[in-house]
Amino acid sequence: MSVTNLILVTLLLTFLYFVFGRQKAFAVAKTSGGLQGMHSLPSHYGAYVAVWCALPALAIIVGWKLFEPTVIDSMLASSIPDSVHELGEKSVALYRNEINNAVDSNNIASLTDPVKQATATRLASLQNSAMLGLFVLVLCTVIALGVFALKRITPDMTARHRVESVVRSFLFISATIAILTTVGIVLSVLFESLRFFSQVNLIDFVTGLNWSPQTAIRADQVGSTGAFGAIPLFTGTLLISFIAMLVAVPFGLMSAIYLAEYATPRVRAIVKPLLEMLAGIPTVVYGVFAALTVAPLIKDIGSAVGLSVASESALAAGLVMGIMIIPFVSSLSDDVITAVPQSMRDGSFGLGATHSETIRKVVIPAALPGIVGGILLAVSRAIGETMIVVMAAGLAANLTANPLEAVTTVTVQIVTLLTGDQEFDSTKTLAAFALGLMLFVITLVLNVIALYVVRRYREQYE
Amino acid sequence: MSSAAEKAFEELKETVGRVTVDNPKMQAKNVDVFYGDKQAIFDVTCDIGKNEVIAMIGPSGCGKSTFLRCMNRMNDTIPSCRVGGDILLEGDSLYSSSVDPVMLRARVGMVFQKPNPFAKSIYDNVAYGPRIHGLANNRAELDDIVESSLQRAGLFDEVKDRLNAPGTSLSGGQQQRLCIARTIAVNPEVILMDEPCSALDPIATARIEELIDELRENYAIAIVTHSMQQAARVSQRTAYFHLGKLVEVGETKTIFTNPTHELTENYITGRFG
Ligand SMILES: Nc1ncnc2c1ncn2[C@@H]1O[C@H](COP(=O)(O)OP(=O)(O)O)[C@@H](O)[C@H]1O
Ligand SMILES: [Mg+2]
After folding, report:
1. Model pTM greater than 0.95?
2. B82 lines ligand 1 (CB under 6 A)
3. Residue-level pLDDT at B244
4. Where in the sequence is the domain holding B4, given as residue range(s)?
5. Cβ–ligand 1 contact at B245 (below 6 Å)
6. Contact residues, B window 54-83, toward A, CB-based 8 Å cutoff
């Protein structure tokens, strides 16, 4: 007996009731002047009965399982020896843990202490009877509700509308779950950040020029005072994103124009998927490429012309990230350029414009909102990108605009703050949440601006 | 089509009526058009006179648009399209290798079935052609061109306060007049119009018909239309197309009151089409 089995049985019964409901509907139809006289189709009545069975049963199972542990725990408390209770909360928890493990792994005999064995046996029997109770309750409910719902099948019953409203609620709940998850993430990040800002001044964080998050673990440690000025991280992120956009926007836009305006259908059918494949390459592969191929290459070229280039440089990370982002720009731009009506191009040709004049002065301006949207999307992608920069941009929080130096980014620091042995509520760990929050706010603002720009433009030319 | 009419079409060897005029602006000579292997126009010969409006009528799919688009080589933008025969503008062939189709389209302008203003302001829509052809030396000259084009298209008074509003914010009829203004602005010699009123209401249509009549003073105009009343109102000559052949050409009055060919008569009297 397990919950899985119980759910399977419930579903099976539900299916049977669906069939019964359908048959009942046919039977009712026969005695009341045919199917035309019925408000809904027989399968609607079947679904109506099925919903009546399944939904309450599933609700009972979920509710039961939510409360079962608490109830069992309190019932078990009496069979935990007083000697353990006297040792305090922690020992009780440990004791319970041991018993639970033994019961869960079906191995009560492994407990050597007879008192513990007794407790474990009691727990096992409690769990068994709980399961049995649940089984009986659910099956009775399903059967009873099914019979009840079958009784309600009459020609006037609006089964179709009722089933649809259940479906609608399901869709609504699904949408809500996605939104609630997002809200949950935002809230948890927000609260952890608030804890961080109770230790580090917000102004210092946002305006500080020095980032060195090593806090002293022992009081007598030297040199690890901890400085949480986020400016170097954000300039690093901006520098790398800027370099990436310098690569992605021209190449992406130009390949989109080529694909949409000049490529023959055959070339387009080959090139477009190839280009989009760039977006499917795992970012860690790009990271390897950036760190092992591009960065040394830049360093070699740099030293050949007499520039000093760090072995991990913003330039290497930015260039490779730009290549990764090309398909974001090109694919979206290609779509919007193709969507510009042919009649507009004809109008331009008809006035004696060449193809390239038509593209530059008519097609691109008309497609601009979509293009801007694509670019902003690419920017937020660049800002959030982690793997490439972890591998190729370095860890040094240099405050610099020189693309040949190593820089670090917000995402890289979040990774380094959370990897390694750290107490979960140390300032250093909390700093990761604060950085995450800032990152989130920035991408959010970018997206809002993108939407605003696009909408303004649409309104203008609708 | 009745079997008698079908027979008449099979037997059609030569266009009925006088295809030439004394004072031609454009001359189409034995024009054939193919889309891939499919022939859409069969051996059409027809002149367009100076200061004349010629209406092209006929059932859907008979090749009116195709023929019209040969006259400014718009068909060049369709890869599968081939044109045979020859078309002359002021005696010079459009299809000789020395002619640049792009420059040609500035001399032979086109107004399309659906108003297709650019995603730009009213001013920039009209200024587009003059700008790409360098017709204005400075902003003041450009302003003049825009104003006079809008004036001649009968739109200026309606839009003079909002030249910077987007062209797409105008009503359908205004948009079509904007497209006409845009065409006039590059100072063409011929204007081709492909069902310019089919997307417009009767009042906007009447406005454009008036305009076409005024434009005749300065341009040769070929207009494709589905409305016989419109053809009768605006044109001096009418050409009737059927399944890719030019069946009959003549004075508009004659065509509508006393057509010679059976097919033309059938169409005019509404027996098919
Ligand atoms: N781009 C094209 N490719 C292939 N066939 C075409 C194309 N345009 C038009 N046609 C064909 O050529 C014939 C004439 O079309 P069209 O000139 O548009 O007729 P009309 O304007 O008189 O309605 C039709 O049979 C149509 O299917
Ligand atoms: Mg047509």
Report:
1. no
2. no
3. 93
4. 1-94+233-273
5. no
6. 72, 74, 77
Structure tokens at B65: 């648009």
Ligand 1 lined by B84 (C-beta under 6 Å): no
Q: What is the amino acid identity at position A382? A: A
What's the Cα-to-Cα distance from A413 to each of A329, A409, B190, B202, rounded to whole Å? 27, 6, 68, 68
Question: Who wins on pLDDT, A450 or A189?
Answer: A189
Calculate the alpha carbon distances from B185 to A369, B81, B219 in Å: 28, 29, 13
The Cβ-side half-sphere exposure at A334, using a 13 Å CA radius, reads 23
Is the CB of A351 less than 8 angstroms away from the CB of B104?
no
Look at B74 and A349 and tell me if their CB atoms are within 8 Å. yes
Instruction: For residues A8 and A6, give the distance between their C-alpha atoms in angstroms, rounded to a whole number.
Output: 5
Residue of B nearest to A459 (CA): B169
Residue B115 lies inside a defined structural domain of this protein = no
Give A227-458's CATH code, choosing from 3.40.50.2000, 1.10.3720.10, 1.10.10.10, 1.10.760.10. 1.10.3720.10
How far is residue A296's CA from residue A392's CA, in Å, rounded to a whole number?
A: 10
* Whether B103 and A346 lie within 8 Å, measured CB to CB: no
Q: What's the complex ipTM?
A: 0.90
The residue-averaged pLDDT of A35-45 equals 88
Closest ligand, as measured to the CA of B57? 1
Residue A334 identity (one-letter amino acid): D
SS3 assignment, position B80: coil
Q: What is the DSSP string of A10-74?
A: HHHHHHHHHHHHHHHHHHHHHHTT-GGGSSS-HHHHHHHHHHHHHHHHHHHHHHHHHHHHHHHHH
Ligand 1 in reach of B196 Cβ (< 6 A): no
Alpha-carbon dihedral sign for residues A375, A380, A383, A384: negative
pLDDT at A370: 82
